[in-house]
Amino acid sequence: MHSSARYAHYITNIEKHWRTEMRMISMCCVSKSLEDRTSPTTYHVLNLLLNFILSCCILFTMYTLFILLLLLVCFKVIVF
Prior knowledge:
- The protein is an all-alpha fold.
- It has helices spanning 3-34, 40-79.
- The protein is elongated, with a radius of gyration of 18 Å.
């Protein structure tokens, strides 16, 4: 497997793992604090919003890392 393809594969696996972890963390945090005080609809909307924000942050981070890795590979190819 080519090195950049291998890096992309690693990043994809890390992204999937992070999404799962963040979703579980957000559900645990939001569940206990909001479930008792708000209506089910408000709780559901807030939970979806939190999941969306966390997913966007994770995607931005992972794609930034992916671009940096690609630049690093390109730099290695050009310099060496």
